[in-house]
Design goal:
about 475 residues, alpha+beta, 21 strands, globular
């Protein structure tokens, strides 16, 4: 049985894993050890989250108000997309439902029917979250499922470094089965027969043995990648953005409960309002824009004074073919990274942890659990990949080499089929497990000028007059 779980690396991924497993195994014989070095920095630019983090914090018994104070958090109702469909256009991708549930079929199909009748009501009109965001307001969702105000959700903008520190304090103060070790890993011992990791060796000579290891070493992927040989699946053919310039500014936006993503000639720029500062970043494809050009563009679009020297962060849209190899699972950047759009970084950490908790075995042979974990993680990466590509592909922009490349590139078959079905019929190919469901596809597709060509037979029971009246009623 697994008795010693070793987490290699800190940061957001390491401390989320430490908190989850320490709580799970508190008062048991399973011990959790986290190894990190203060000398090794973290990427630390991911500050926007999605609603799933609320449920993760709930599982840890974290009080939301304490969490928000500790991380200088603000509420997030969605993302304001600017210049994505066309230059000068904008829309919000909110958290929650598109419209209101209907008895016969999805609201999207009714909206498409009314749109063809010339009703001309944009997607923004059918989200409580969007209306609140535009007005700089926030309220908690209603618990009455029959109310329209129950149809939205919310997340947070947080200081990710403060979140990691908050979880560290939680672990050190509350879990007797947890300890942190300061140090750099410089050698790894594997079993000569099975290839399993047996121990991690630190620079000071300390040997740390374990039964199961969690790789939170960031882009380096020290355990799963370098040691156990997991291969990297490159996604950059479809997602060419591979760099970001990032720095915080002292400007604050107290009545802005949403993030901003503003498209430019070779990528996009984010603005994430926290309580004490604003996170800023310029994401770009280095084959279409130089670092100097990106830095100039970054400064041109800033408001306020920078609080740190802007850093150029290099990444590649990719993920490991095996997120779990031998007796080690990768969590966070060591497993993969799509790109910052839609704030999926912390979500992928959380997803890996939850799946690992569900599948972590209590016996020596965990072949089937490992296979299932890898299948589920690969499926998660593919679905997120397709949704991120959608943002770029559905754009009508062709004003630069970057956007022309996007317009002409071959799509993955999975996205090609989903997009064709959506365009032809208004049907979003739904799935039981996955992050972005029908409402998200509808908001992005329609918000950037996508068109649904035919009416669904499931709306034929309504006359044109009743279809228009039904949609107008919900809009009011």
């Amino acid at each position: 049985m697994i008795k010693k779980i070793i987490i290699a690396g800190g940061g957001t991924a390491g401390w989320m894993a430490a908190a989850a497993f320490s709580r799970l195994f508190n008062h048991s014989s399973v011990h959790i050890t986290l190894i990190e070095s203060d000398a090794i920095g973290t990427v630390g630019v991911g500050e926007a989250t999605i609603p799933h983090l609320r449920y993760f914090n709930d599982k840890l018994g974290i009080n939301e108000h304490d969490f928000m104070r500790a991380t200088n958090a603000t509420f997030k109702l969605g993302i304001d997309f600017i210049n994505w469909g066309k230059i000068g256009e904008r829309y919000i991708h909110p958290f929650g439902e598109f419209g209101f549930p209907t008895p016969h079929t999805s609201f999207l199909k009714y909206w498409a029917r009314a749109d063809k009748l010339g009703l001309n009501l944009p997607t923004d009109e059918f989200s409580i979250a969007t209306h609140m965001a535009r007005k700089g307001k926030f309220a908690y969702p209603s618990k009455n499922e029959q109310s329209l105000t129950s149809t939205f959700s919310y997340a947070f903008h947080i200081d990710a470094n403060r979140y990691a520190q908050y979880l560290r304090t939680l672990c050190e103060n509350n879990f007797s089965n947890f300890n942190r070790i300061e140090g750099k890993i410089n050698n790894i011992t594997q079993n000569t027969t099975t290839g399993n990791i047996e121990a991690l060796h630190l620079e000071d000579g300390t040997r740390i043995e374990g039964d199961f290891f969690i790789d939170c070493s960031g882009f380096r992927s020290l355990l799963v990648g370098e040691t156990l040989g997991a291969k990297t699946i490159d996604l950059s053919k479809h997602l060419p953005c591979d760099r970001a310039v990032a720095a915080p500014t002292d400007e604050t936006y107290p009545n802005t409960p949403y993030s901003q993503a503003t498209a430019h000639s070779a990528g996009w720029q984010w603005r994430i309002p926290l309580k004490h500062r604003t996170g800023n970043g310029c994401v770009y494809a280095s084959q279409f824009m130089s670092d100097d050009e990106a830095l100039n563009l970054f400064h041109k679009n800033l408001s306020g004074k920078t609080l740190a020297t802007p850093q150029v962060i290099k990444f590649k849209a990719s993920h490991k073919n095996l997120s779990w190899s031998h007796n080690c699972a990768a969590v966070g950047l060591s497993s993969g990274f799509i790109e910052p759009l839609e704030s999926t970084g912390i979500h992928l950490i959380q997803t890996a942890i939850i799946k690992l908790i569900e599948l972590l075995p209590s016996h020596a042979d965990y072949t089937h659990e490992r296979i299932e974990f890898n299948r589920q993680m690969a499926d998660e990466y593919e679905k997120i990949r397709d949704f991120i590509i959608l943002h770029y592909r559905i754009s009508e922009r062709d004003d630069s080499e970057f956007w022309r490349y996007i317009k002409n590139m071959e799509l993955p078959d999975s996205l090609k089929n989903r997009l064709a079905l959506l365009e032809e019929t208004g049907i979003v190919d739904t799935y039981q497990h996955g992050l972005f469901l029908e409402s998200s596809w509808a908001y992005v597709f329609l918000g950037q000028g996508g068109q649904i060509k035919s009416n669904s037979t499931q709306t034929h029971h309504l006359s044109d007059r009743r279809a228009r009246a039904a949609i107008t009623k919900i809009q009011r």
